[in-house]
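Sharing in case it's useful to others searching the archive later.

Someone asked me privately for the predicted structure of Sulfatase, so I'm posting the question and my answer publicly. Question first, with the sequence:
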Amino acid sequence: MSLITRFQRSPVEPATPDEPRAGSRWRRVAAPATTVLAGLFVLVALVAPADFERFTPGAFLRVPVEGLLGVVLVLVLPPRPRRIAAVVGGAGLGLLLVVKVMDIGFDAVLYRPFDLVLDWPLLGPAVDYVDVTVGRVASIGAVVAVVALVIGLVVLTTRSVLRLTRVVVGHRTASIRAVALLAVASITLAVPGVPISSGGAAEFVYDHARAVKAGLNDREEFAKEAAVDAFRDTPGAELLTGLRGKDVVLTFVESYGRDALENPEIAPKVTAALDAGSAELRAAGYASRSGFLTSPTAGGGSWLAQATLLSGLWIDNQQRYRTLVASDRLSLPSAFGRADWRSVGIMPGITQAWPEGDYFGYDQIRAGGDLGYRGPRFGYATMPDQYTLSAFQQRERSTPGHAPVMAAIPLLSSHAPWSPIPEAVDWDEVGDGSTYNSMVSGTDPPEAIFGRDPSSVRADYAKSVEYSVKTLISYVETYGDDDLVLVFLGDHQPAQVVTGADAGKDVPITIVAKDPAVLDRVAGWGWDDGLKPGEKAPVWRMDEFRDRFLTAFGSTTLKTSASPEH
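And my answer, the predicted structure tokens:
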């Protein structure tokens, strides 16, 4: 026997016999651990709530009825149908989990669950938002990450269900006993108000199925609503006669919601600014009236709210928006244009083609690139509110004897993430915006608000709204005259990281004018005096405003409802 042979057989290196034993021990530990993890994952997919407010330990201490039925099905099916059922059920459970994640995201931002029919078009604006605020690379990365997450969840749930299926079949007697025990326990141990069993997954699917049916019928419902328009054929000579010769400025203050006036962590700054502004404007000869409107959206979707107010139709989803902008429905800007105003849209947030803007009937749209801004962005805002109003003033109202102008102006400084906020400067120093280059403009991505202390986020939100309303008050004091009528309102409430749950969708609205005849026209509205509506101020749906406004300031009265009862 050679030396090499003797060395290979020497007991000094017994590695080869030991390695299989070590691998076997690892497999014996890993297999049950993997099964437990698969079971926990499936349990979470079945019982996890679809909103953060219900994420409590008790929510997961449930016996999912769907899981018990799934075990029974696995036990009675023959091998091939069993595997098919496991694959289909696992994939379906993965998709259910994906929809739950979407619901959580929509609830956190928009106060409602994801609509499987109507909300897909909103994903485009979401990507555009990331693109604008963080950059193209980040938006592409976000899309890739979302696609990977969806595929990963579906694959993981499918593999988990397949693994559990094999375990159930391999331990048939134990599985039957476990199902029986859990079924009996869920009935006998149940306490009123403290359920043991859960049919949450089935209920979740049922709720979304009902929403899908409603979404499929929404186009027909919207067509019925849009067909009724009391002002469709009203001649220009009979429109807006109570505002002849006035410059009417309609401004949407981003995320200016009712919480800005009533949430104790936010309201002190904002209400102080409004109270001081009311006193200052009153001293300068102005009067104001304020109420509330209920927005069709919350947390986001500003264009839906703006379209609702300007069209007099309830635009709460992208399908309705697209249908509206392809229609000939009379909008407020079109009504002013028909009555011989110059109507303009000052749109600092529009940074690319906006073909749907043609619907609103503006004589001219001045997008972000048309306003000549040479300063930095502040968070999402392409330019500070003060610059937007200054640019509007210089381009539309600075020429003596100019024709009456009606302007719709969305203001962006109070858009999430609400930090940083530009400083106010003298109006003569605004110029082309270069003065803002010396201010801190910030680099945090918008989603950073969800990782910050909520109290800090609310403080920043309050500061941003305070800045916006002070800027509007200052604009009136600086450039106002007998012929200026200012209407300003919020488009929607901020995200729930600011308001908390169940905040509602009301937003403040205010009319400011120096000519007493203007506010006399709206005396019957019952709105509160001043820039701040009180707790008991009237609340209308936002789609009611167009007809009430055209009625109050027209030479004819509204004889028929412009929108059906809801």
